[in-house]
Specification:
The complex is a heterodimer of chains A (373) and B (368). Chain A has 14 helices and five strands. Chain A is α/β, with parallel strands linked by helices and 373 residues long. Chain A folds into two domains: 233 residues, no CATH class; 108 residues, abc type-2 transporter like fold (3-Layer(aba) Sandwich), CATH 3.40.1710. In chain A, strand 1, helix 3 and strand 2 form a beta-alpha-beta unit. Chain A is elongated and about 100 Å long. Chain B contains 14 helices and five strands. Chain B has a four-stranded mixed beta sheet with strand order 2-1-3-4, sandwiched between helices. The longest helix of chain B is centred in the middle third of the chain and has 31 residues. The radius of gyration of chain B is 28 Å and the shape is elongated. The chains are: A alpha/beta (373), B alpha/beta (368). At the A-B interface, helix 2, strand 4, helix 6, strand 5 and helix 7 of A face helix 2, helix 4, strand 4, helix 6 and strand 5 of B. Strand 4 of chain A pairs parallel with strand 5 of chain B, so a sheet runs across the interface.
């Protein structure tokens, strides 16, 4: 027992001795949490809208005014020709071009049918889809109003059947993205710090040559592994705590669920990450290799975690791959417990899988660490 | 000059000798581009939803059929009372519930109006909002079909054209982003590590007392990585063209030049990191922790910059990746040339010069 304590003491000393690392470990993640949580939004707003009005009637102007009044669109400019508008889109100055054809009003009055042409910069396909919905809503509404006005003038309106939809957004009525993102980004930061530090740890001793010195001491394998793991576990929990405080106080994210459950799960989770880190560390010869591998998995874990893009939309084979992604479980658990107040029985599958994962990874790490060189 | 070439040769040996790193260096980007190109999408498909049908009549059945036959939704559960909704949301089994009021079709005929409630789990606001929009659109369409007997009149029909990406493929958005991340991180990390390693091992001192000039040492360190990164860039561009069918509307030559410019930019950032850090550990943590999330989040790779709060839009300007992504999309998808991209290119050149200038200033040629 004493041996483990001494190793732990040594590890802590090494962490706190390196003055250049301290701000990177403690300050950088928190600054990133505070800044980046604001960046992660899929909301589509401030759409740069422009129009080409070939009709120049009061009707056309009214339609443009509708766009002007909408909070989603910023009316940037009015172009005299479709060509000029297209050039502006190429230069990235506008996102949407509405072209009102000549005789728009006349066609609507005479033929009772008129066309509009809309061009959307669709490089960001998802945003383009949303922009299209907004545009259609505005045009529909304008159409509805025009219809009523014109039909009244015609005399007599046959009342149409109408289905009303009432959306209701649970757990996050205002559709606040920070509520969604802060727990997720916190997860990433905790994971990155613990994975990178543990991944570099043993391989660093190898590279410097101090691992051989440890190998010739009577320290047992399990003592060594526990001694290496423990400090990073503490580090991860400290980061989680600071992050939760920031989430609560600065971002006013509701913490509905049980804090104990969150910490309990986090301990199991960090063990998984540390296991992966040590495993990488044992299998590489230089810190450079270790970091490359850690980075490779980190990018994959992050982008396939369901944090930024939904897992359900991925193809089947990719969804199966995400089963091996620990970050996915952590993100799910944090969101479920923090925001929805899910209890132990709700997150039972995640806990079980993470626990198995932790056993496997640490088993592998212990197995791959050999006391001979 | 001969000495310098000898030094570069030594650097190449160093890199080529380490088979494992080399394998990772080339294998990783390929795996990542393939994986992300196919897997990541922010479209909404096959969302699991539940239905709470209080009226169970012909109309609601028809609407439910319409909804479950769309590719966006799959109806997973039929529930009987409001109380079960919360449990289902907490377990995360479903993302939304459609709640039809009692006597739906009777009301629709008699009062000409009936109500559907769309309850969504808005812990993921993006999905919630999209679900709500899509269901409304489906109901709108259904309503229009209902009313065909009422004279269609005064119809304004918008014809929408999705420019540059008619099929709304997410790949077009993500491939340039993935390419940028890989080039940025690999280049910055590799240089910073290789220079700090010499420092840590003590061999930097030997290099400093050699007849090579300090800037030759640094350039010699960087040249091999320029080669490797260019090869990486070529592989990624080939993959995006042949595997993901990304068009290259603009000039391939310009694409190459801009890629090299960005690689040099990332490498000079790596040099800068290595001059301010003493150990490999610090260098790696700065280049990984410091660059990974900002590059992913603030470059416009996943999240649109124009929707961010103003201070963050300002911060995004100092992220080189942002400008390179604009350039990539411009050349590949819009087919524009330097006439449109000169500003972005100049900014990248300027940043590169800045990184180099600061590194020169900070670079210690004396022993401590």
């Amino acid at each position: 027992m004493n041996t483990i304590r001494y190793i732990i003491q040594k590890e802590f000393k090494q962490i706190f001795r390196n003055k250049a690392m301290l701000p990177i470990i403690f300050a950088m993640p928190m600054i990133q949490l505070i800044i980046l949580a604001n960046a992660a939004t899929f909301e589509v707003k401030n759409i740069k809208f422009s129009y080409v009005d070939h009709d120049k009637t009061s009707f056309a102007r009214e339609l443009v005014d509708k766009f002007n009044a909408s909070t989603y669109f910023d009316v940037v400019s009015n172009f005299s020709s479709a060509k000029a508008a297209k050039l502006a889109m190429q230069a990235g100055k506008v996102d949407v071009i509405l072209e009102i054809p000549p005789y728009f009003e006349r066609n609507l009055l005479k033929d009772k049918k008129a066309n509009l042409s809309v061009t959307i910069n669709a490089i960001d396909g998802a945003a383009a889809g949303v922009e299209n919905v907004y545009i259609n809503q505005i045009v529909q509404q304008f159409n509805q109003n025009a219809k009523i006005k014109l039909m009244l003038a015609d005399g007599g309106v046959a009342k149409a059947q109408k289905i009303t939809t009432i959306p209701s957004f649970w757990y996050n009525e205002t559709l606040n993205y920070k509520t969604f993102m802060v727990p997720g980004i916190l997860v990433l930061l905790v994971t990155m710090i613990t994975l990178f530090l543990s991944g570099m740890n043993i391989v660093r001793e190898k590279e410097i040559g101090t691992l051989e010195q440890i190998n010739v001491t009577p320290i047992k394998k399990y003592q060594f592994i526990i001694g290496k793991l423990f400090p990073f576990l503490i580090l991860g929990l400290v980061l989680l705590t600071v992050g939760l405080v920031i989430a609560k106080l600065l971002f006013q994210i509701p913490i509905v669920g049980s804090i104990t459950l969150m910490y309990g799960y986090t301990i199991v989770y960090i063990l998984v990450i540390l296991g992966i880190g040590l495993f990488i560390s044992n299998f590489t010869d230089t810190q450079q290799q270790a970091m490359f591998i850690a980075w490779f998995f980190m990018v994959i874990f992050i982008l396939m975690s369901g944090l930024f893009t939904p897992v359900e939309s991925m193809p089947k084979w990719a969804q199966i791959l995400t089963e091996f992604n620990p970050i996915k479980y952590f993100v799910q658990v944090m969101r479920m417990v923090m925001l929805k107040g899910a209890g132990l029985q709700d997150i039972y599958p995640q806990i079980f899988k993470t626990l198995v994962y932790a056993l496997v990874m640490n088993g592998l790490a212990a197995w791959s660490y050999k006391k001979v060189t | 000059m001969k000495r310098f070439i000898g030094f570069i040769r030594k650097e190449f040996y160093h890199i080529l000798r380490d088979r494992r790193s080399l394998f990772i260096l080339f294998g990783m980007p390929i795996v990542q581009v393939m994986l992300f190109g196919f897997a990541i999408t922010n479209e909404i498909n096959n969302v699991d939803i539940a239905v709470l049908d209080h009226s169970k009549d012909a109309t609601t059945k028809e609407i439910i059929n319409k909804i479950s036959s769309s590719k966006y939704f799959s109806v997973k559960q039929f529930i009987n009372n409001e109380a079960t909704i919360e449990k289902a949301f907490e377990k995360g089994e479903i993302k939304a519930v459609l709640n039809f009021e009692p006597d739906f079709s009777k009301k629709l005929v008699a009062e000409k109006q009936a109500t559907v409630q769309i309850l969504t789990d808005a812990t993921d606001p993006n999905t919630a909002n999209t679900i709500s929009n899509y269901t409304s659109a489906i109901l709108q369409k259904y309503q229009q079909d209902l009313n065909t007997d009422v004279r269609i009149q005064y119809q304004i029909a918008p014809q929408t054209r999705m420019a540059y990406n008619p099929e709304l493929k997410s790949v077009f958005m993500f491939v340039p982003g993935v390419m940028t991340i890989i080039l940025m991180l690999v280049s910055a990390m590799m240089t910073s590590i290789s220079i700090t390693r010499e420092k840590e091992m003590g061999t930097m001192e030997i290099l400093l007392v050699s007849p090579l000039k300090p800037f030759q040492v640094i350039i010699g360190k960087v040249v091999p990585y320029v080669f490797l990164s260019v090869i990486n860039a070529i592989i990624i561009i080939l993959l995006s063209i042949f595997v993901f069918k990304m068009p290259v509307q603009g000039s391939l030559f310009l694409l190459g030049v801009e890629s090299i410019l960005f690689i040099i930019n990332a490498l000079s950032l790596g040099i800068l990191i290595s001059t301010v850090s003493a150990t490999q550990q610090t260098a790696m943590m700065v280049s990984l922790m410091g660059l990974m999330l900002p590059v992913i989040l603030l470059s416009g790779f996943i999240f649109p910059i124009s929707s961010m709060p103003l201070p963050l839009q300002a911060i995004s300007n100092i992220i080189p990746a942002k400008w390179f992504i604009i350039v990539l999309k411009g050349i590949m998808l819009k087919g524009v040339g330097l006439a449109y991209l000169w500003k972005e290119s100049l900014i990248l050149v300027g940043m590169t010069l800045f990184f180099i200038a600061v590194s020169v200033k900070k670079y210690k040629i004396r022993l401590e």
